[in-house]
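subagent[fold] <- orchestrator: predict structure for attached chain, return C-alpha cells only, no commentary.
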Amino acid sequence: MPGIYIEATILDSKAFQTLTKMQIKIFFHFMRKRIFKNVGRGKKTKKYLANNGEIIFTYSEAENLGIPRKTFATAISKLVEVGFIDIAHSGNGAIKGDCSKYGFYDRWKKYGKPDFIEKTRPKDTRRKHCFDKVNKSKMKPQLSMTQNNSVTGRNLRQRLNKARTRVSATATLN
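subagent[fold] -> orchestrator:
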C-alpha cells in the first residue's frame, strides 16, 4: 500500500512545530510525490530520492485537493522559509507546461540555529497582464460610446469644458 515515511526527527523539529495544519497537509502532499530508488545489492542496498529537484505540485492540483491558491502559495513560502523544500525551478504560470519544480533538502535540521541557511521564495517578477484581478473601486471611470456614438458617463463635462476652452481660445485669437 503506497504511503509516506516521516522520520521522527522531522516531527520533533522546530521547523515542523512552526507549521499550521494546512501547511503540514501540503507538506505531506509534497512528500507523497517523492520517488525513491534502490542503489546497490543485498545488504548494501540504499534508497535515494530519484526525483529530487524535479517534484511538480501545481496550483491546479492543489485546487483539486480543496486547497485555495493563496493558502498554497503561503504554504510553499513557509516550507521554503523553514527549510523543508527549495524551489529548483520557478515556473511561469502564463506558459503552459512550465511548472515550478521543488526539491527536498536538510536545511530544516538547522532551523532556529545560528548556522541555518535562510532562503525565501523568489518574488514573481513577471509583468502583470490584463487578466490579473483589478480593484474596480480604484479604476478611473471610462467614457463609453452608445450605439449612436454619443458620449455618456461622468467625463462628458470634461470633454465639453475642453471644447469650450478651444473655442474661446480661437475666438480671442481672431
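orchestrator: received. Logging for downstream: The CA atoms of residues 58 and 99 lie 7 Å apart. The radius of gyration is 28 Å.
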